[in-house]
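In this section we walk through a basic example: taking a raw amino acid sequence and producing a predicted 3D structure, encoded as discrete structure tokens. The instruction is simple. Fold the sequence below.
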Amino acid sequence: MTRREALPDGLILAGERAALRFSNEEALSLFVQANELLVSSEHPRDDDRWRIAIGLGSVYLLVGDYDASVSALQSGHLF
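The resulting token sequence is shown next.
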């Protein structure tokens, strides 16, 4: 795994940990950053794509943004 491929994985893990601490703004920021890197990646991994979609969907649900939650979860199958 190259450094560029490892960056989204590290951001996803940090987002998941922030979400577990209910640091919702931090989690959203980290998941969005990971998604931006993943979208620009030559070979995005399916598990990263789904971890981001589930992470964003879960955090948006916790903060009461139901439309964003549904959108994030639906985006997981659009790559």
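Looking at the output, two observations stand out. Residues 15 and 30 are 5 Å apart (CA to CA). DSSP finds four helices and no strands in the chain. In the next section we compare this with other chains.
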